[in-house]
């Protein structure tokens, strides 16, 4: 089977491309490299000895998409391409709606024209807003995301729902990721954020490697066990495996399917920090700061639907996520540049 992976040079896309190649799929990557470099795909090739065909271009470029579908017998699309920085989305809403919503619309139009109806979409637990109960199940109502990034994910989910209702040939997976972290255990494929990281684990690992001075902990007065925010961190390799299982499943059914991809366990900022210190053997200096606007106190998944319907379960522990993050970061202190 031949799979088009949009955003395949990015963090989650590159790990999923590796998993696809290892499983025997042919892969065409479409990426404009606005938040990545093709070094990730070279790393993929070095790890598995197989390579994806890399096409540098934009998912909003309809003529390019038409050409790709004409030249390749694509069976399904994994759609990772998009912008993902929450703070930046507040400052640049048009760019975010254009890339994330506009990109998805153009992709779906090109897919329909080419007769390709299988799509796996990268959504986010952010679409749940602030649920009253934990763990979060797929049947919970979606909330009101507090930023354009989150809105863009919810809008695309709704578009895909309407599309499946209107045209029964579509077979779509909405994968709601919780907090993807970690790196491939080779230590040569990992997360390489542009500039100062927004997310917890890349920030901690850059403090440990000496690129940043100290971690700011955003609030220690939440009603959680130690007062710091709780999240469901999931190893990116487990997440990649979830995509393969979702792909398999939508190849056998049509309609819209929603699956949470998380572990079902919540860990606090403090627990993550301590686990990282243990894995790296380095102290991570920190300072407690006020809460970050838009943060929820806690969020973790009920992953039982994916276990039941996909036969998928995350298997890697928090300690392994930290060990793999540190192996990647210490091998590549400046990411793919060094
Ligand atoms: P990433 O930035 O590493 O990867 C996205 C890739 O898409 C990059 O390689 C980028 O160059 C490419 N891209 C962006 N706009 C494009 C365009 N218009 N045309 C072609 N390529 C384009 O991000 P990631 O962490 O790998 O996330 C992948 C997807 O998963 C995104 O849609 C993101 O919103 C979603 N997601 C990520 C997280 C997370 O914590 N990382 C959580 C939930 C959902
Ligand atoms: C954030 C986004 C979410 C997005 C996800 C993945 C917000 C409000 N949410 O999720 O939409 O899908 O990233 O890109 O931005 N923390 C610190 N110090 C830091 C960074 C984070 O204490 O320097 C804390 C946060 O307060 C939170 C936890 O660490 O409690 C995890 O934060 P982060 O990694 O940014 O993920 P989310 O906020 O869950």
UniProtKB/TrEMBL annotation:
Reply yes or no: does the keyword NAD apply. Answer: yes
Q: Name one GO molecular function term.
A: UDP-glucose 4-epimerase activity
* EC annotation from Swiss-Prot or TrEMBL: 5.1.3.2
One of its GO biological process terms is:
galactose metabolic process
| Pathway it works in | Carbohydrate metabolism; galactose metabolism
Instruction: Give every NAD-dependent epimerase/dehydratase domain span.
Output: 3-262
Subunit info here reads:
Homodimer.
| Name under which the protein is recorded | UDP-glucose 4-epimerase
Q: Which organism is it from?
A: Pseudomonas karstica
């Amino acid at each position: 089977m031949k799979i088009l992976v949009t955003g395949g040079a990015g963090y989650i896309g590159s790990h999923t491309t590796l998993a696809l190649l290892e499983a025997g799929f042919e892969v065409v990557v479409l990426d404009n490299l606005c938040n990545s470099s093709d070094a990730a795909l070279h790393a993929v090739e070095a790890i598995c000895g197989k390579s994806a065909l890399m096409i540098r271009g934009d998912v909003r470029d309809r003529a390019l998409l038409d050409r790709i579908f004409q030249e390749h017998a694509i069976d399904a699309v994994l759609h990772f391409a998009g912008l993902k920085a929450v703070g930046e989305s507040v400052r640049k809403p048009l760019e975010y709606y254009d890339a994330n919503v506009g990109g998805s619309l153009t992709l779906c139009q090109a897919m329909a024209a080419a007769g390709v109806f299988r799509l796996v979409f990268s959504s986010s637990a952010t679409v749940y807003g602030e649920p009253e109960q934990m763990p979060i199940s797929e049947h919970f109502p979606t909330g009101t995301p507090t930023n354009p990034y989150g809105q863009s994910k919810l809008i695309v989910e709704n578009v895909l729902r309407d599309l499946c209702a209107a045209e029964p040939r579509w077979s779509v997976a909405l994968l709601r990721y919780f907090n993807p972290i970690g790196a491939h255990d080779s230590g040569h494929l990992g997360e390489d954020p542009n500039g100062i990281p927004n997310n917890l684990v890349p920030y901690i690992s850059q403090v440990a490697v000496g690129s940043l001075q100290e971690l700011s902990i955003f609030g220690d007065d939440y009603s959680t066990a130690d007062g710091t925010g709780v999240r469901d961190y999931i190893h990116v390799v487990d997440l990649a495996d979830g995509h393969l299982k979702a792909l398999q499943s939508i190849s056998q059914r049509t309609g819209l399917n929603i699956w949470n991809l998380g572990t079902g366990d919540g860990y606090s900022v403090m627990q993550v920090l301590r686990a990282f210190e243990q894995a790296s053997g380095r102290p991570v200096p920190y300072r407690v700061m006020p809460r970050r606007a838009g943060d929820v106190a806690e969020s973790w998944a009920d992953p039982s639907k994916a276990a039941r319907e996909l036969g998928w379960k995350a298997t890697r522990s928090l300690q392994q996520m930290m060990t793999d993050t540190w192996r990647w970061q210490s091998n590549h202190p400046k990411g793919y540049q060094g």
